[in-house]
Amino acid sequence: MKFKIAICDDEQNQIDYMASIVASWSAHAGHNCEIRTFASAEAFLFEYEEDKAFDILLLDIEMENMNGIELAKRIRKDHNRAEIIFITSHFEFVWEGYEVDALHYLTKPLSAEKLTQVLSKAADKLSVEPPSVVISCDGETLKLYESDILYAEAFLHYIVIHTKDNEYKIKEPISVFKNKVSDDFYRIHRSYLVSLKYITRISRTSVTIGNAALPLSRGKYDDINRAFIEHN
Questions:
Q1: Which SS3 state, helix, strand or coil, does residue 88 take?
Q2: How crowded is the C-beta side of 15, counted as CA atoms within 13 Å?
């Protein structure tokens, strides 16, 4: 397959190092890769405005002016499904990365073996259509990609599916909807089904996704933590 890969880092030695790893991986895996390098988020955006067809993004988080997290948020506003790999020296940014559906975090000093593994994971995800679910809403049949769904909320005989940009009200039990989606979703409460990838905080009584603090059923704290860790 052919992939367009961007490397964005404000340290030239890191750019050169990552580019060499990507080139080696490309040759061994048999992928035709176009590698583009950028010394700042602003430089990337300048080209991105003309051509948004990037498949894999290697983004340094700690860049001057616009950092890697801010750049990723800007890209996701376009509903761009590129696989994002963050490079960082600090763990405190990890929670923010889930807001932009990051594929993985890699810490410096960067391991060539680990980066190769993550690149292969990204290529595997890009080679198939993202998981989706078909719903009937307001007389229309719609396909929702699982990666866009934050959580589902039950109200008597219908549920509301909350996505990044919209809400969809459908007449269906939450238990039926749960069977339609993958194991990326977890039933935290009889009225709530959440995407594990968008969880930003777990407490004894609630699970936070974005600005929403959703109730966590008693006795599920250990299970949801285990599911979250295994998923990520």
A1: strand
A2: 14
Angle of helix 12-29 relative to helix 112-126, nearest 10 degrees? 60
**pLDDT tens for each residue of 23-41:** 999 999 999 999 999 999 9
Residue-number span of the structural domain to which 88 is assigned: 2-126
The continuous run of DSSP H or E covering 161 comes out as: strand 158-163
- CATH number of the domain that 147 lies in? 2.40.50.1020
86 half-sphere exposure, CB direction, 13 A CA radius: 28
Contact between residue 160 and residue 169 where contact means Cβ atoms under 8 Å apart = yes
Q: How many CB atoms lie within 10 A of CB 213?
A: 13
pLDDT score, position 159: 97
Cβ contacts of residue 206 below 8 Å, gap of 6+? Answer: 213, 214, 215, 216
In the predicted model, residues of the chain with pLDDT beneath 50 are none
How many Cβ atoms from other residues are within 10 Å of residue 220's Cβ?
17
Residue 146 backbone zone (phi > 0: left; psi -120 to 50: alpha; other: beta): alpha
